Amino acid sequence: MSAFQARIPQEGPVLKKGRGLVAAAWSALMAGLLAGLLAGLLATPLAAQDGPSEVLPLPTLDPATLDPATLDPATRELIEALMSEVASLRGEVGELRQRVDDGEGMSEALERLALRESAGPAANGMNVYYKDGLHFDAADGSFKGKLGGRVHWDVTSGSADADLEQAIGNIEDGTEIRRARLAYSGSVYDKFEFKTQYDFAGGDSDFKDVYLRFKQIPVVQNVTVGQFKEPMGLDEATSSNVQPFVESNLAMALVPSRSLGVAVTGKTEDKNLGWAAGWFKDDNGFGESEGGDGDSAVTARLFGTPIYEDDGRRVLHLGVSGSRRAPSDDMVRYSSRPEAHQVQRFVDTGTFESDKVDLLGLELAGIEGPFHYQFEYTRADNDTPGGEATFSGNSVQIGYFLTGEHRGYKHGDGKFDRIKVIEPALRPEPGWGEGAWELALRKSHLDLDDGSIAGGTLDDWSFGVNWYLDPLTRIMLDFIRADLEGEGDADIAVLRVQREF
Description:
Oligomer: single chain
Structural class: alpha+beta
Largest sheet: 16 strands, antiparallel, barrel
């Protein structure tokens, strides 16, 4: 641990804010003192101006242009060192401000700077350090890069009653690498971002998030092009690394996931209101559109936090989203597994003709200390030759941290985030820590029956127990009771071990 890290106390939010003010004030004071010293050494007068006093910029200095007769080598070397220190201090203050503006807590920003200090700059001007991934940051702040990924390993076991087995077949036990992803992301001057993420699970390398993003654009704020998630659904927007269950709720069967397209995103200055809207086309998982005639969609989402208090320990989230879609070759299909990936699909409409689809999504979620809750409703209206076919799904879930943590939330981005474990089980001290323990309960419903389309109706009850060894490592155990209307029930258990890096 560096001396800078050792000075960071593990205290509450008041001291965290105080630390930030002290750090910023200290940097500003040092910059002022160094500027004054330089002004004295150079005897550079600061011109007086009429009217209110202003903070004048620090004069630029090129030691090569100075008269050697007036400056000895030692003085020139001192001046160069002082100028470098002033630039470094100003850069750190600017980085702290930017990170806080982007939603990162002051303590996290200070910790990131501490890790960078302890690593030191490489010979090529890059600072390399590890924090939730391997970071490569240019010493002058012009470029930031991160190499990371995730591994999710699942074991599934289940059984169905005789009537259900006759309808869908036997539920087989199994194990799989559910996700094996590598990602590289970065930014240039905080005005341009990129990300490339590949998933190697299943024996091939599918594209996941592969996009380019322009930031700080007047009016629209951010413009993203490439392959990424369409802005619809809270469960869909939230990373699989931080969801309290191994799979998304049944209602997400009606919601699109990643597609090729272009989108604009933004949020208000206080981050209590955010929006996203874009135009998309279906893709084949390898960065190419695969649709035939038609195949396009316009999708938008509006979300807000009427309540955001105590650094995210108390949150109320509301959201609404919609999509108008022209299906590829006027053909549509909806289906779903019972919230366990290795189990076969229980409900399935099969492919049917529809030249237009309208989707609606509603979101309500919140955090009250260690308790959290979430409700979602989705509806799909399909224009078919025989009239309109409507399908719907909904989900209600609650969760509680037995060890006092609270669920994380990305303020301004409209989705949940990773938690901060109070006493990590994985720690540098000898022995194992307690980690964080979470209990979760969910009821999901999906109705794919309407008119001549009989896709089935499925109801799931899921109970989950999660042990967080640290914010990036988790062991999950889900018990699922799936009821396929008119056919029978199944009991399923899923164990997951996961690590994000």
